[in-house]
Design a protein that fits this description.
352 residues; Quinone Oxidoreductase, Chain A, domain 1; Rossmann fold; 2 domains; seven-stranded mixed β-sheet; 11 helices
């Protein structure tokens, strides 16, 4: 083992109930397996899924057993590595892919690491404690060296950008296409940058928060509007034939309904947002008559390099996505801010 770290106590931010959180002391992890990488956490991004666990205690069948630490968007500095780790060494700065696939099941062998039969995911109940803590051990396959020009904050932003990159990739060729994005939070904006990079001709964005609509315009949206009764007419006035692809990025039933209405025959609806309900519905009449395609997007799959490429292609836009910064002691304040969409928040970061 190389540079084994001494075990002691560390800080961890734990959920203890609905909208309840505490700063606790827990054992600091150590390198135990040959492919382990011990990371000193620098920055953690607050994700909408983290907030779901904070406000409701669950996402679908994934139910929090308290106390539990969430968080999966992070970057930090390597402190120690196992004896089998060759491409990382102490002092390296890394972005963390929160997914830990087995690399042996049928899904992994088919290249679908994100639907691994034995997948563990940071901050997912029943799978792995999250990264809202001082230190974390991850397998080397989940650790990616940061280019020298990127900061730890940018490293923590890579994970949501990966989701945008994967959603755009899964949608197929977007060059010259008319694309809609329903919801301009961090994931919707990540999709926006990815489809822009993919060559979409015109990008239309629906978002209820004015500051986010303005931000979407600065990121390349040709048109923005609010998700009200006038949305369909407004977008159809811009693109009378309908949209080729719509990315639903807010998890709302109303957005699913609007997405179906906005698509041209043969169009594709990409389901990126996470609904808080267990069931959603669609107009089978519109789906059938227009022969629409519905594609689920499950997180991301091997798109870390694509996420880094988005930061390098859009440095101004990605830097501006980080609107709020909090020290670890004020993590609950960060969660309350994101949960209530206050103060023009897009991405809040917690520093350790």
């Amino acid at each position: 083992m190389k540079h084994a770290a001494q075990q002691d106590a560390m800080r961890a931010i734990q959920l203890t109930g609905i909208r309840q959180m505490r700063l606790a002391k827990t054992p600091r992890p150590t390198v135990a397996k040959p492919d382990d990488v011990l990371i000193r956490i620098g920055v953690v991004g607050v994700c909408g899924s983290d907030v779901h666990y904070y406000t409701t205690g669950r996402i679908g069948s994934q139910v929090v057993q308290y106390p539990f630490a969430v968080g999966h968007e992070c970057a930090g500095t390597v402190e120690a590595v196992g004896q089998a780790v060759q491409r990382l060494r102490p002092g390296d700065r890394v972005a963390v892919d929160p997914a830990m696939p087995c690399f042996a099941c049928d899904q992994c062998r088919a290249g679908r690491h994100h639907t691994c039969r034995h997948l563990l995911f940071l901050g997912c109940p029943g799978q792995s404690e999250g990264c809202l803590c001082d230190a974390l051990v991850m397998p080397q396959t989940s650790c990616f060296p940061l280019p020298d020009a990127l900061t730890l904050e940018q490293g923590a932003l890579i994970e949501p950008l990966c989701i945008g990159a994967y959603a755009a990739k899964l949608a197929g060729s977007l060059r010259g296409k008319a694309v809609g994005i329903l919801g301009a939070g961090p994931i919707g904006l990540s999709v926006l940058l990815a489809v822009r990079q993919a060559g979409a001709a015109r990008i239309f964005v629906s978002e209820p928060i004015a500051a986010r609509r303005t931000f979407a315009q600065s990121c390349g949206a040709a048109w923005t509007g609010t998700p009200d009764a006038n949305l369909i007419a407004g977008m159809q006035a811009q693109e009378p034939g309908g949209l080729d692809v719509v990315f639903e990025c807010c998890g709302q039933q109303s957005a699913l309904d609007q997405g179906v209405e906005l698509l041209k025959p043969g169009g594709r609806l990409m389901l990126v947002g996470i609904p808080q309900t267990d069931r959603v519905s669609f107009s089978i009449d519109l789906l059938r008559r227009r022969e629409l395609d519905i594609q689920n997007v499950r997180r991301q799959n091997d798109c870390v390099a694509a996420g880094i490429a988005l930061i390098e292609a859009f440095p101004r836009e990605t830097a501006a996505m980080i609107t709020h910064r909090f020290p670890a002691a004020r993590t609950q304040e960060a969660f309350d801010l994101v949960a209530s969409y206050q103060d023009g928040v897009i991405k809040a970061m917690v520093a350790f």
